[in-house]
Design goal:
EC 6.3.4.20, alpha/beta, Rossmann-like_a/b/a_fold, ligase activity, queuosine biosynthesis, 5-stranded parallel beta sheet, zinc, two-stranded antiparallel ribbon, globular
Length: 238
């Protein structure tokens, strides 16, 4: 059982995207030991997984302290997710809104399964903080990104594992412009450049042209959020 007087060691859900990279930097600022976990679930934008190793290597160069604190990376195969549901995130289908008001990029249960899998690994690794990039401010309405969902999941995990884990979601109440700003506050221009040049967020998995805000198709919901957030962030810096 994890007790509250133990050192706070974190496990970050790290996809290789903008949000998870910013969350990793946040964790490296706040905890003395940080590990990362990624998931292969048949995602259409699997290129994000290809970005992860170089991101982890480059983030070590931003701060000697971060380099010392950053520990082991873990990858899990959660292919069962794509077997359970067909979505625009796991299949070559057009992105559109559904009758329930959610875009068909919503993968039911994905973040819940991610967090539960992370908690199971954390149990074995003696890590007592789970960090995720869920956000209720600039998001597509996914119910498993909401603060209430994460709080309820924290209770369920702690009851089921007899632990005292804490789920941290540093981006929950800030928009994408705020996420860019947080990256600057955590790692300066070096981290902002790393997010722009090396992270991947595009749902269609396109690297292609380098835009002001980074690589991507520029039209999917993820690219639009990222681009609009960067434009607001850049405007406020002037």
């Amino acid at each position: 059982m994890t007790t509250t007087n133990q050192p706070r060691h974190a496990l970050v859900l790290f996809s290789g995207g903008q949000d998870s990279t910013t969350c990793l930097a946040w964790a490296l600022q706040h905890f003395e030991h940080v590990e990362t976990i990624g998931f292969h679930y048949g995602q259409r934008h699997a290129i994000e997984l290809e970005m992860r190793p170089q991101l982890l290597q480059k983030i070590r160069t931003i701060s000697p302290e971060w380099n010392q604190r950053l520990g082991q990376d873990h990858m899990l195969d959660l292919g069962i997710i794509s077997q359970l549901s067909q979505t625009a995130m796991t299949s070559e289908i057009a992105i559109q809104m559904q009758e329930n008001g959610l875009p068909n990029t919503f993968v039911p249960g994905r973040n819940l399964m991610f967090m539960l899998s992370a908690a199971t690994l954390a149990y074995r690794r003696n890590l007592n903080v789970l960090v995720g990039g869920m956000c209720e401010t600039d998001f597509s309405g996914y119910p498993d990104c909401r603060d209430d969902s994460m709080k309820a999941l924290q209770v369920a995990i702690n009851l089921g594992l007899d632990t005292r884990y804490r789920i941290e979601t540093p981006l929950m109440w800030i928009d994408k412009a705020g996420t860019w700003k947080l990256a600057e506050q955590l790692g300066g221009q070096a981290l902002v450049d790393l997010v722009r040049e090396d992270t991947h967020t595009c749902y269609l998995g396109q690297r292609g042209e380098m835009h002001e805000w980074g690589h991507g198709c520029g039209t999917c919901p993820a690219c639009e959020l990222r681009a609009n957030g960067y434009q607001t962030y850049a405007k406020n810096r002037r």
